[in-house]
């Protein structure tokens, strides 16, 4: 009987892995993303170039829940910015350096190691940097966006 139950569980996990990273808003679907299988693409233009993004569930550009991972190379920096909704961050790999305020001051970074969690409320000005290759997981209620404290830091304006 245990072997049958294990076989059913294995089949169920295999089927849900096929649905993993479904970016639709059907929350009746199970989403399972085994370690090392997230599918990364270029991060959106609202972020400085060089990062990669994987949407694990939901659609961060629309209303509703989302979960995504941001891969950043060593030294990758996000200038001071804020969000219109709560931002939930969990460090998955590397060290994520976070500072509060509208001016980047590297002496005020707080290092967040793997497993660290943070929640920043709407409007909280902050900045970040990757120490080593770093992956963070972001989740919340979309749409996800950010506003740079200094508009000239917005990479979308630099590409025009």
Number of helices: 2
| CATH domain class name | Mainly Beta
Assembly state here? single chain
What count of domains describes the coordinates?
A: 1
Structural shape: globular
SSE succession: HEEEEEEEEEH
Strand content: 35-45%
- Radius of gyration using CA atoms only: 18 Å
CATH topology: Jelly Rolls
Low-confidence stretches: 1-26
Number of strand elements? 9
The main β sheet shows up as: 9 strands, antiparallel
Class of secondary structure makeup: mainly beta
Instruction: Return the average pLDDT rounded to an integer.
Output: 86
Helix fraction by DSSP (H/I, runs of at least 4): 10-25%
Q: For the terminal residues, how far apart are their CA atoms?
A: 64 Å
Architecture in CATH? Sandwich
**What is the CATH homology-level superfamily?**
Jelly Rolls
Give an overview of the whole structure:
- This protein is mainly beta.
- It has a single domain (35-158), classed as Jelly Rolls.
- The chain contains two helices and nine strands.
- It has helices at residues 2-19, 155-158, and strands at residues 41-42, 52-58, 64-72, 77-82, 87-100, 110-112, 117-120, 126-142, 147-148.
- Strands 1, 2, 3, 4, 5, 6, 7, 8 and 9 form a nine-stranded antiparallel sheet that branches.
Offer a quick outline of the entry.
The protein is mainly beta and 160 residues long. The protein is globular.
């Amino acid at each position: 009987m245990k072997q049958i139950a294990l076989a059913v569980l294995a089949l169920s996990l295999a089927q849900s892995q096929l649905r993993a990273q479904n970016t639709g808003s059907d929350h009746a679907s199970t989403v399972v993303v085994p370690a090392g299988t997230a599918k990364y693409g270029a991060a959106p233009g609202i972020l400085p170039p060089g990062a990669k993004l994987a949407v694990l569930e939901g659609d961060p550009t629309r209303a509703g829940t989302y979960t995504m991972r941001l891969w950043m190379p060593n030294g990758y920096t996000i200038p001071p910015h804020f969000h219109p909704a709560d931002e939930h961050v969990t460090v998955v790999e590397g060290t994520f350096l976070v500072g509060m305020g509208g001016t980047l001051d590297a002496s005020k970074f707080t290092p967040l190691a793997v497993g660290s969690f943070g929640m920043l409320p709407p409007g909280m000005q902050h900045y970040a940097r990757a120490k080593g290759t770093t992956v963070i997981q972001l989740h919340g209620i979309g749409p996800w966006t950010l506003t740079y404290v200094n508009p000239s830091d917005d990479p979308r304006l630099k590409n025009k």
